[in-house]
Structures are given as C-alpha cells and as structure tokens.
C-alpha cells in the first residue's frame, strides 16, 4: 500500500466502478479515489462500452453482480473471453456470499462483499489484484511473441519439456510450419501486410492447438512450431491442419508448408525433433505440388551424408582428393572418326566413401556456392594437363571444362580464367567452356552478359545438355555460342524411337541455323553412331569410344593415336 500511496500524480491507475446503487458506488469511490482515477457507471452495457474504449488504460473493474441491461456474470464472461479485454482484472461486488465461488470460476480476480465496512481491506484487495495482473502481463510479454501472441521459441521449448515430463506416455508430434515465398510477400506488399498475414496465421494456429491440444510458437520471422498430440493417420490429418491454417488466408494466394516429425516412440531430444521437422520443411522448399512431408531416416541419412561432403570439401581440395578424368570427343565428318578434344570430368576419391561421381556432389556444391572453388581447381588441373601434353607431343589438345551456373555470377570469372591460361602458358582456345543450357534459361541475361565478355576475351563456349533447359527459340538466335552439345536423353532412344531421331534432326538444324557444330554425348553403340552420322552431327563423345579416364590412361591413348596405331 505504501508504494501505491507514493505513486506520483498523473501515473494513477484507472479503476471502473460498475454499480446501479448510487450510495454504494460513491462509498467505494470514496475509499479508492485518493489512489486511483475512478470512472463510474451504473449499467452493464455502458460498462462494456467504457471497458472497450479504455482497454489500454483500465487497470481494474469493480463489478456489481446485479446491474441492469447486462448482468455482472454476463459482462464478466464477455471480458474473460475477449482476446483484447481479458488482461483487465475484474473484482465482483455483492452481498451474496454464495456467489463467490461462481465468480472465481468465471475468472474474477477477487470478490468483495457488501457492505464496505473495512476500507483498508478493500484497498489492499484492489491493489493486490492490479499488481497480480500487471505481473502476469510482464510475464506474458516476455514469454510471448508480440506480433502473434504465440509463445516465443525459448518459452515454447520450456513448456513443451514440462508437458513431456508431466505426461510421460503421451506421444506428441513436432511440426514446423513455414509460409511459402514469404520474402516475396514482404517485398511486394510491405511489412505491414506481411505482419497482418503472420498475425492471421498465428490466430489460426492458436485455434488449432486450442482444438487439438498442445502448444504453439512463432520460432522466427515466418516460421511457426507446434507441439501436438500424435497423429495416427497423417495423410488425412495433416491436410486438415493445413486447411485449418490456410482458412485465414482464403482471400490471398498465400500458402503454407509443414515439416513433421512423428513421435513413434523414438527417444530423441525435443529440440532435435523440431530440427528434423524443420529440415523436412526446408526440403519441401517452394515445391508447389507438396505442402507437407514427414521426417524419415533415409532423408536424414542423405542429409547427413551431404553435410559430411560439404564439411570434407576444403580438406579434399588441399589433399587433392579430386581427380580430373578426360573423355575424348571425335569428329565424325570424315569416314574415319578423328579425335578432336577432351571433356574434363571431375571425380572425388573420398578417403572413407571411395569413388564419388559428380552427380552426388555438383548440385550440392552449387547450392552453397562451393562449386566455385572446385571448378577453379578443375580448370587449373585441366590447363596444367593441356600444357603437359603440349610439352610431350608438341601440339595443343583442347579440353572443355564445365562452368557451373554459379560461376556466371562471379564478377572475377574472366580474370580467373585468364590467369589460369596465363599461368599455364596455354591459349584461350585450348580451354573450351561448357555451360549447361538450363543456366541460360534460369537467368538468361546474366549468363548472356558473362558469355559475351568471355567470347570477347577469346574463349569458346559450348552449350551443354541442349534440349533439357527449355530455351526459347527466340533467345537461341541471339545466343553467343560456339557449339551445341545435345542432351544425352535424345541419343539414348534414338534407335527405337522415331520421335527422338526426329528431335536430334531438328536440333541439328538449329545448330546449322546458328552456324555452330553439333556435339552429341552419351553415344554407346555403333548403331547410334551410324544414325547420328546420317543426321549430320559433327562430334561424338561417349562410351562407344571411351569412358572418361584418368590423365595417365588418356596419355597412353594419345600416344597410340599420334603413333598411328
Ligand atoms: P556433362 O557435362 O553433361 O557430362 C557428361 C556426363 O555423361 C559425364 O557424367 C560422363 O561421364 C557421362 N557420359 C559420357 N559418355 C557417356 C555414355 O556413353 N553413356 C552414359 N550413360 N554416360 C556418359 P559425369 O562425369 O558423371 O558428370 C555428370 C555431370 O556432372 C556432368 O554432365 C557435368 O554437368 C557435371 N560435372 C562433371 N564435372 C564437373 C566439373 O568439374 N564442374 C562442374 N561444374 N560440373 C561438372
Ligand atoms: Mg559437360
Ligand atoms: Mg552434357
């Protein structure tokens, strides 16, 4: 009470007294008016109006049970169930002792019996209720996310852990929810709209856990976590959860995705379960055909393997675990195939996993940008090899190297390549550059700009995997390239699929139009070779001639060719 008495003027809390009896209203006001700003009203309806209007400043409501228009219990129920009002504590006023239990059950903070014959006790009770409510708000603010009102991550885990300890045998699933393409919503419509969307999602998630039981949090900007009783049939249940949450987004085109870790008796740490659910959620990405997925061990093993490869990359470069293989290309313009050049293809001799082919790590390294280091390594190795062969045989053998789509964004790409050429004392035409067609389609202008600069600097560009990247014919015509390399899938069935045969023909025509040679890779049989020759393809690469081989074996092959064996 002392602290209350010392409160400076102007910082008084406001108390609303609702009582239809003038005398009692005034008596109560007289007891409290030195310590609080008092608002008076005599009926339920006007009380509700005042409470709504003053919801941010009102510290307490003293509410008589029997008042006209809207009785005390009804008004109490409204306050307790309204998300904007429920923080305001209510003390019930009545002469009926037996109404006490019901008041408290309905959520009243306390109960004061009439007549008001102990002013000190009344003041103490009022003060106590206000302070309790304020403390609770402070706690709520620290444990809740301000935007959505859901728990924040720290308290969420704390309560989930308590829940787990209390009901030992009840299986609970961990679900991570993400908003698809949220950054675009933010950029296109601004922060206020994005916040509104998050609020709506937060409300729906709150309703969901209220309905099924459990806890919910906003874990970071557009990510939510829910900890709910185990779902038996997830294929039925998860779409239901998703539509419940998306219901609040019906007037938008915004969708969500869910990564789920099902509790099937595994004993793993709570946070780890959520990490796994988050991993699944990330894996779904913005894949529009899937909106949920559940964690499984295979995915985890694959993920761990990828993680391991990423971690091992640096030391692999230092220890030269990457080996460059060479696969010859042959011109088939003349009767007898004539060896023209090589393609450099990387292999990884991992100390634990043995030989790993590029399919397993190129995309992985493209995702995190590590490919730039690996490519630079391969280009250097290839350039050094070109020089070695030139020193041994007296002429240059061109080698094409693969240039990842990621390299195209490197502002120093041209400089890097020029340095490699210079350091190894070879020419720009010796190191041919293969860029996959899908890279052109993904970010055409960027690639085109890069390619133009590369060609201005004397490099030759081969478009790799042509036919897999959906370039527009229009774009093709303006494309600065020096060769078209057809995607392997067309060759595969060329002998027994008339359509593929025709397609190779059409693509060869396109190459003619662009006035560049056609290279066909993946040629494995004599029959394929015969048909490709018939169509008029220029250069062939494939197992029919040779698999990619290490430099030592290839050197032997060159030696034999040179000696005319
Ligand atoms: P790519 O550049 O299209 O290379 C051709 C792939 O076809 C190679 O697979 C090669 O071994 C394979 N191949 C060649 N002839 C035949 C054949 O007759 N039949 C069959 N079935 N396959 C054949 P590889 O070496 O596994 O490389 C796969 C892909 O990985 C390459 O496709 C390329 O996109 C990428 N890659 C390889 N090395 C590098 C590199 O150093 N840097 C970058 N960025 N990507 C690379
Ligand atoms: Mg290639
Ligand atoms: Mg290719």
The largest sheet, given as strand count, sense and whether it forms a barrel, is: 8 strands, mixed, barrel
Number of domains: 3
DSSP strand tally = 21
Q: Percent range for helical residues?
A: 40-55%
Name of the top-level CATH class of the largest domain: Alpha Beta
How does the helix and strand content classify structurally? alpha/beta
Low-confidence stretches: 1-10
Average pLDDT, all residues: 89
Calculate Rg over CA atoms.
37 Å
Name the strands of the widest sheet in spatial order: 12-13-15-16-17-18-19-20
CATH architecture of the largest domain: Alpha-Beta Barrel
Shape: elongated
Tell me what the structure shows.
The protein is of the alpha/beta class. It folds into three domains: 142 residues, Rossmann fold, CATH 3.40.50; 145 residues, 2-Layer Sandwich (Alpha-Beta Plaits); 259 residues, Alpha-Beta Barrel (TIM Barrel), CATH 3.20.20. Helices cover 49% and strands 21% of the residues. It has 22 helices and 21 strands. The strands form three sheets. It has an eight-stranded mixed beta barrel with strand order 12-13-15-16-17-18-19-20, surrounded by four helices. A six-stranded mixed beta sheet has the order 6-8-9-7-10-11, sandwiched between helices. A five-stranded parallel beta sheet has the order 2-1-3-4-5, with helices on both faces. Helix 18 links the parallel strand 17 and strand 18. Helix 9 packs across helix 10. The longest helix is centred in the first third of the chain and has 25 residues. The chain is elongated. The chain starts with a helix and ends with a helix. The N terminus is likely disordered. One magnesium ion binds next to strand 17.
